[in-house]
Amino acid sequence: MSTPVRSPNRWLALVVLSLTQLVVVLDGTIVNIALPQAQIELGLSDSERQWVVTAYALAFGALLLLGGRIADYWGRKRTFLVGMVGFGAASVFGGLAQNGTELIAARGLQGLFAAMLAPAALALLTMTFTHGKDRNTAFAVFGTIAGAGAAIGLLLGGALTEFADWRWCLLVNMFFVILGLIGGLLFLSESKADGDNRYDVWGAITVILGLGSLVYGFSLAEGGWGSADTIGFLFGGIVLLAAFVWIESRVAQPLLPLNIVANRVRGGAFLIQAVSGSVMIGATLYLTFHLQIVLGMAPFASGLASLPLTVAIMLVAPIATKLLPLSGPRPMMVGGPLLVAVGLAYLSRITADGDYFVQVLPALVLMGFGMGFVFVPLQNLALSGVAPHDAGAASATANSAMQIGGSIGLSIFTAIYAATAGTTNGLTGTPLLEAFTSGYSATFLAAAVGMVLASVIAAVFIRGTKTELLPQGDAAAMVHVG
């Protein structure tokens, strides 16, 4: 690895890199608030509406490992700058989209360039702050921005949609991109991995096609789980991912070193990350629809109404951080998902004429408290026992698990919503808003079952003493993006 230089501009570099982290996380939620208006203006079907979110998460998650390798081999600053330009261009394309296909394509391109930006920014941060108090401070700032990004996205998306136009939820990225490019050129130093570095081309191809086929297969389940297309894509995805594992076990420089995921504790952490991603990306999207479509909230009010979830997470995070060395991660990883499940089960009792403060707010607070106890130990467990040179790959894998879990979860939730709402309205003649509510309720209940499963996974996989489970040294300071 090239020797890092202690830059006199390192704190300005931190501002630039934190700005990048903000825009990547923010774009996972900012469009959610705008979707109801975008759907009306562009005439999107429910399936196309889902893919506006899925395209970003899928491209981001599937390409993240490759993006990290490109940054290491091609140059982190160069990858960062190219990612910024591409992300800005994709945002303009999406902001000017005239139909659903263009909007979905733009979101996929945003995810592609975010997969270059995120690992490049994390690697640059690691090379800029190499040790000591400055490093701990830098990673704390970086992690805090990640935690706040989702909330900022909801509020900013609501304000732009209500007081300007939904298209500004995409076009606003240009302000971040311009600042990022100027700051990157001025304050970031180039670095890249030394030696003979070869890309794992076949590994990249099989994992990208495998994940894409799997997510698309789940999205087709809206039309029936037994259809030939659904089964074919799901089966094809499994075969391609099996081929990816086979390739990674044989190449000299794998895209994903298998020892990262083969470890029992880390493997369990990645599975829990995938389930948590499905809830945070999928279930919260349907909460947005309920707030706007059924309860009739304006976009900005909807963003405010979603905020207690993020606030609760941020309130619990410092408490969980202090408790972690005392209790170890296992109690939090078992109990946290159960608390989220209780919140989701409570949320599943919503009615079309219900009150936000009675039916929604308590559920969001419970979910936020539970997620706070999940996310803090999860970041540590993702790096448990990982050698320093594999910390970046482990971090990228954790983020990929969340994004791909969100993509698959959203596809499953959409199929459940469509089946429930369609049956309720079509067979019983129930009014449309009540049918919508039935569909949303079913998705929340399914998400609750998923979080119970996450608790079971934690009980089975997260085993060992506190010393064994909590990583030591610099690797512990690493955080995954998103």
TrEMBL record:
The chain crosses the membrane at residues 12-31, 51-68, 80-98, 104-125, 137-160, 166-187, 199-218, 230-247, 268-287, 293-320, 332-350, 356-378, 399-420, 440-462. The keyword Phosphoprotein does not apply. SUPFAM superfamilies: MFS general substrate transporter. It is found in: Cell membrane. It is a multi-pass membrane protein. Residues 13-466 form the Major facilitator superfamily (MFS) profile domain. The keyword Cytoplasm does not apply. InterPro entries: MFS, MFS_dom, MFS_trans_sf, Sugar_transporter_CS. PROSITE patterns: MFS, SUGAR_TRANSPORT_1. One of its GO terms (cellular component) is plasma membrane. GO terms for molecular function: transmembrane transporter activity. Its main location: membrane. CDD domains: MFS_MMR_MDR_like (cd17321). Gene3D superfamilies: MFS general substrate transporter like domains (1.20.1250.20), Multidrug resistance protein D (1.20.1720.10). Keywords: Cell membrane, Membrane, Transmembrane, Transmembrane helix, Transport. PANTHER family: BLR6921 PROTEIN, MAJOR FACILITATOR SUPERFAMILY MULTIDRUG TRANSPORTER MFSC. This is EmrB/QacA subfamily drug resistance transporter. It comes from Microterricola gilva. The lineage of its organism: Bacteria, Bacillati, Actinomycetota, Actinomycetes, Micrococcales.
